[in-house]
Automatic annotation (TrEMBL):
PROSITE patterns membership: ADH_ZINC
Organism: Halonotius terrestris
Name the UniProt record assigns to this protein: IMP dehydrogenase
Keyword Metal-binding attached: yes
Ranges where the Alcohol dehydrogenase-like N-terminal domain occurs: 26-135
Gene3D superfamilies (alphabetical): Medium-chain alcohol dehydrogenases, catalytic domain, NAD(P)-binding Rossmann-like Domain
Length: 345
């Protein structure tokens, strides 16, 4: 089969690789029909994080089940499914409490499982990982585009809102105008937030934030951005959604938090080499809550809203490529010509 493969910073190639094979009674083979390039893929692409060379890439699979092991009960060949960026068993202590990302049997979309940016993947834990799309929606292209972000960024934006304690009537700030931040705006809106302040530096992205329900847009940087939010809210917001993970965005998060408020953080920490200064959190009794999003836990409730037409994150896909176009997709995201790239292998 053919798959996108990482060959070092700036080098993604589409090449022939062995097709994954069913290896356990709990596994399934999926023919990938839709996937995406993630903002987190840019870290190894830019050489900011290490990754094996060569290695398969892509962690947001959607496709058709081709084959299942004898013990699989939730899906069968021919079903349309999607899967989160983590593979989880669904049986262990942490899966049962909804913390799928701490699964003791966790696995990843890489190595022999294949990356999602390829023709086929193996899911070694089908029942604990795959989400089945109901048959009547399974071939509707618009619906599938709207469901695909549930594999990662929409679930992550939702986790930011939940972690920040956003509820009906809340005033919140969303830091970051990447795909996760934009999905965070949608999630806050969906939970009933009354005032949503979107913070970012790109006009085109903030325009989507507005379309998604942001009531205020703040494009200033650093201290100016913090001052602006303080002014707008007479002293800060109770619910801050941190969707970047950088030192500067964490500083912005605490800077715009109202005393007694909560920062929900979902950006993978990077560049926090000197650590996070807890003193401002201490001084203002601000809670820091969040972490890697257990998106499998949110898949069914978010899918229900997509299928009834009240949730649509698909505008984050501003470019679509086929498998051969994956290298071009990475370049477009790296150059910020695309917010998120949809891949149709
Ligand atoms: Zn991702
Ligand atoms: Zn588990």
């Amino acid at each position: 089969m053919r798959a996108a493969t990482y060959h070092g910073p700036g080098h993604i190639r589409v090449e022939s690789v062995p097709e994954p094979e069913l290896q356990s009674p709990r596994g399934a083979i999926i023919r990938v029909t839709h996937t995406a390039v993630c903002g987190s893929d840019l870290w190894f692409y830019r050489g900011e994080t290490d990754r094996d060379v060569p290695s398969r890439v892509g962690h947001e699979p959607m496709g058709i089940v081709e084959e299942v092991g004898d013990d699989v009960v939730s899906v069968e060949p021919g079903d349309r499914v999607f899967a989160p960026f983590f593979i989880s068993c669904g049986r262990c202590e942490f899966c049962r409490k909804g913390l799928y990302t701490s699964c003791v049997n966790q696995d990843s979309w890489s190595g022999d499982n294949g990356g999602a940016q390829g023709e086929y993947v193996r899911c070694p834990e089908a029942d604990g990982t795959l989400v089945r799309v109901p048959d009547r929606h399974a071939d509707d292209e618009d619906t599938l585009r709207s469901l695909l972000p549930l594999t990662d960024v929409m679930g992550t934006g939702h986790h930011a809102a939940v972690s920040a304690g956003v509820e009906a009537g809340s005033t919140c700030a969303v830091i970051g105008d990447g795909a996760v931040g934009l999905c965070g705006v949608l999630a806050a809106k969906r939970l009933g937030a009354e005032r949503i302040i979107a913070m970012g530096h790109h006009e085109d992205r903030l325009a989507i934030a507005e379309e998604f329900g942001a009531t205020d847009l703040v494009s200033e940087r650093g201290e100016d951005a913090i001052e602006r939010v303080q002014e707008l809210t007479n002293g800060g917001v109770n619910h801050v959604m941190e969707c970047v993970g950088a030192t500067s965005s964490m500083e912005t998060a605490i800077g715009v938090a109202r005393p007694g408020g909560t920062v929900g953080y979902v950006g993978v920490p990077h560049g926090l080499g000197d650590g996070l200064d807890l003193e401002p959190f201490f001084r203002a009794n601000v809670t820091l809550n969040g972490g890697v999003a257990p998106v499998r836990a949110y898949a069914e409730e978010l899918m229900a809203d997509v299928l009834q037409g009240t949730l649509d994150p698909s505008p984050i896909f501003t470019k679509t490529v086929d498998l051969d176009g994956v290298p071009e997709g990475y370049a477009a995201m790296d150059n910020r010509e695309a917010i998120k790239v949809l891949v149709k292998p």
